[in-house]
Design goal:
184 residues; mainly alpha; 2 strands; 8 helices; two-stranded antiparallel sheet
Length: 184
């Protein structure tokens, strides 16, 4: 078995068939591990900025540009200081809107889709699929989203991404048929 942390040191031209398969597996695991590590850092940043900035001594009032707590994820996720997203975006070299979206996705995964989150952290599924499920289910409340979490967790490591996303869409509709009827 390949050590996926050393995969960048491998010369593709030197691999036989078994080596290509092992390296392919290692690359996928390394990519997933890097994505999970990035997400854990985003979560750590959100956790460090979960206290109300307006409650801090010397806080600048919001009406004068001061920081405030905002909800970036769905129902049941902790709120975070609004301006912390911009700091993290600068450090990551990404746009604040992209960083806010990533933070919302991972907060949703950790707090609203914990079964799916556990599979992603164990590198058992593609992180981008889980993030898309988080976005698809964001409008559901914390009780409704449990239906999506259970169904997707049972499928995410075994089915093709398109099938998982189709299942997630069906479960979002099932969880809130009234909202679906209003959309159509």
């Amino acid at each position: 078995m390949f050590d996926y942390t050393q995969v960048m040191d491998v010369r593709v031209d030197d691999l036989d068939a078994a080596g290509v398969l092992a390296a392919s597996e290692a690359v996928v695991r390394a990519r997933r591990a890097a994505q999970v590590q990035d997400w854990l850092l985003v979560l750590a940043w959100a956790d460090l900025h979960g206290e109300d900035p307006q409650a801090m001594p010397g806080a600048v009032p919001v009406r004068y540009g001061g920081d405030r707590l905002v909800e970036v994820g769905g129902d049941g996720t902790p709120r975070v200081a609004d301006l912390c997203v911009h700091e993290l975006a600068i450090a990551r070299g990404t746009h604040p809107a992209s960083t806010r979206s990533t933070m919302a996705d991972v907060l949703d995964l950790r707090h609203r889709l914990p079964l799916v989150w556990d599979i992603v952290v164990a590198l058992g599924a593609e992180p981008w699929v889980a993030a898309k499920v988080a976005r698809m289910s964001r409008s559901l409340d914390r009780e409704q989203v449990g239906l999506v979490d259970a169904a997707v967790a049972a499928a995410i490591g075994a089915l093709a991404p398109g099938r998982v996303l189709g299942l997630a869409e069906a479960k979002v509709i099932e969880a809130d048929t009234a909202a679906h009827a209003a959309r159509i």
